[in-house]
Amino acid sequence: MSPPLKNIQPFFVMEILNRAKELERLGKDVIHLEIGEPDFPTPAPVIRKVKECLDQGQIRYTPAAGLPELREAIARYYRERYHLDLSPTRIFVTPGASGAFLLLFGMLVADGDRILLGDPGYPCYANLIRLFGGTATAIPVGPETNFHFTQALFVENWTHDTRGAILASPSNPTGTIVSRETLADLLRFSERRGGFFIADEIYHGLEYAAHSPTALEFTDEVFVVNSFSKYFGMTGWRVGWAVVPDTFVEHAERMAQNLFISAPLPSQQAALAALSQECREELDQRCRSFAERRDFLVAGLIQLGFAVPALPQGAFYVYAECSAFTVDSSEFAKRILEQAGVAITPGKDFGAHHPERYLRFSFTATIPRMGEALTRLQTFLAQDRSARAR
Amino acid sequence: MSPPLKNIQPFFVMEILNRAKELERLGKDVIHLEIGEPDFPTPAPVIRKVKECLDQGQIRYTPAAGLPELREAIARYYRERYHLDLSPTRIFVTPGASGAFLLLFGMLVADGDRILLGDPGYPCYANLIRLFGGTATAIPVGPETNFHFTQALFVENWTHDTRGAILASPSNPTGTIVSRETLADLLRFSERRGGFFIADEIYHGLEYAAHSPTALEFTDEVFVVNSFSKYFGMTGWRVGWAVVPDTFVEHAERMAQNLFISAPLPSQQAALAALSQECREELDQRCRSFAERRDFLVAGLIQLGFAVPALPQGAFYVYAECSAFTVDSSEFAKRILEQAGVAITPGKDFGAHHPERYLRFSFTATIPRMGEALTRLQTFLAQDRSARAR
Predict the structure, then answer these.
(1) Which residue of B has its CA nearest to A2?
(2) Closest CA–CA distance from residue A305 to any residue of chain B (Å)
(3) Is there a single domain that holds both residue A344 and residue A357?
(4) Would the CA dihedral through A249, A262, B95, B83 be positive or negative?
(5) Contact A148, A176 (CB under 8 A)
(6) Are residues A264 and A365 in the same domain?
(7) What is the pLDDT of residues A249-286, one digit of tens each?
């Protein structure tokens, strides 16, 4: 048989992660700041609720769009958090945000379509777009625009064959939040051009100053992706959701049936419990911990000589510039892992716009652990400096 | 925004199902023989095990290919059941068999590729193939070939742009099992042509005479899909697996990372428990119940005047011919639901090869309930006959 036709580049972070695990098996202590996964456990009330559901027992397929009571609870969440009235019929529960992206790209991306996305950004977007026959056009964004699109960038890059755009706010890997004004401009622009707009809002809820606006505040003609993995801290359950315009409801239903039949029932029950008031208080407490960690990590990195050109306003990432120390952040990350036992993700995983200058640090470890990481980095940098001086 | 570009036909069974639920809300009793979902609950040891895991608590992402211990347990299952030595590295745990199909089609189907599949067959295949830019070529198969491909059909239909084929055995909707000889021929043929072969084995374990051969007995250069939904009775957990050739392992890993990150952890823990000896005994008992139900339903349908041109040898479906009563099985199914309160799936959902002659009955109800369904059908047919006679 011939080799696979559609090549997908591996994530560099997997190489870091695998080597980290190897080092751990050899008895070395590794501090993990590379993974996009909260270190908090599933909230206790969620576990309690799922166990009750398991006892009652029929774990069957649900409707393709999800349990009606979960879709209603998500609609309530939009009412409480954003003061928005959203019909539950527009909400599709999916197997993780991954499932939501499959659902949307499956519906929206056709052969030859160009889709605009920001560089640096989440690497799966481009891979999935290619899988459905589209072309992902990565547009360099930097500190001067808070690592986000602007209307000027849309004007410049939106060609006749551009069919839509994706924007993640808070962003991975930078944690920056797009302003209300810019978001409104971008939505208006893509609507005028007859294109689609996907707002990746999976880091909503993890914000350290103002709230992120949801694209749904500005228009109903938008596709929104969200997840129970980040703010709700439930990665391993694999449950997320998509909101689609009214006119796409029927099509999304068919697409969901074909792509995944339904999201797992126990995970949907977990999601329902996570939306309860009891959980939300715990989750907001965790968000305050993340804010403290952010302040601690950013200050520590700056003190060591890293630059943080855009302060993360949400998510749990610092996209730090390491040009003071190296011209190759990938090689640098490897050496840091080997010599300091600190695992971080190099910029390479997020695009082609000067990735060699950047490292992504996740603040998904406790402050004492991050303190230890900073101490190790300090020692590493001192040795590295003296080695280069020789 | 313009309407969706890629249209996917809805499943007719959803219309039946929605109407059935409407009738139930109006207080009518409906006997459900339309859905491809076992009526047995998740085995008790599985529930126990998952609850223990939930108590221990960290519900995190797993490796993209699944928990190592689950992949090893699946390899053991192949050893016990098929006397096959399979490397766990070739086994990918997926979010349902749906996830396995996405994984395989994502790797294997490129623009313009023709993929052969049997008609009647599972309708999602063609939709997913189209989604990835391929063309699904449905080849009519009938009772004369036990509703399966033969080598002659491959010879006749395998063109220069044919890139592969899918075969499900036991088949949905017919429950027929391909013979060892034919399967070996088909595998040899597609290998010689440099094409891929996907064996959908999700109904393995539910067999009522001889065991189904697995395609892996004949070659390592084959893609196999299986699931915990049918024999293991765990639909709502959404967990399945794919086996890929050695040369595809690395590519499948990347594809899995992009498509779904990982299957849900609680579902993987459930799957691990389902493979235990304790569960397997219960599952084999259920299989014997299905065998009794099959005999009961087939005999009952024949007595009523339906034809069953190929006895189901596995799965839980009877594909019954209703030409004695109607020239339009879809309209007939609707009337049966309205007048007799029995929900069944018309042939239309499974292809274009004389679907109007067939109805699919699932024996996923108890014998007393199916007895009641047969009684209602008898009354319905008598009334229908006398109405036509008038």
Answers:
(1) B194
(2) 33
(3) yes
(4) negative
(5) yes
(6) no
(7) 999 999 999 999 999 999 999 999 999 999 999 999 99
